[in-house]
Specification:
Blueprint (H helix, E strand, L loop, with lengths): L1 H41 L4 H31 L2 H16 L5
Helix pairs in contact: 1-2
């Protein structure tokens, strides 16, 4: 059961790393907005193009955060590799009694 527990633990660690993507995305979006405001302060006539570029960049960053959240949910709740690992573990414990 130690190998199975290790696999489940590593899957949960991978899910936590995927969730960090959302946190880091938020920090990056704040940095982008701060620099956009600074650029508009230096060149007010370029406000339209700076704002458009900022919103496109924030949209791309937000999709990366949502993908990280989706991956973490898949790893925690619907991991297809865990089902196969459970099947292999049960098969091995039926064939080899010292595995269990």
């Amino acid at each position: 059961m130690d190998a199975l527990a290790l696999a489940v633990g590593l899957s949960n660690i991978a899910a936590a790393i995927a969730l960090l993507n959302g946190l880091l995305t938020t920090i990056g979006q704040g940095n982008v907005a701060a620099h956009a405001v600074e650029a508009i302060g230096r060149q007010p006539e370029a406000k339209g193009s700076i704002t458009t570029t900022m919103f496109i960049g924030c949209g791309f960053a937000e999709t990366a955060g949502v993908y990280g959240l989706l991956i973490s949910f898949l790893l925690i709740f619907a991991n297809p590799f865990m089902d196969r690992l459970f099947e292999l573990y049960e098969l091995a414990s039926a064939v080899l009694p010292f595995v269990a």
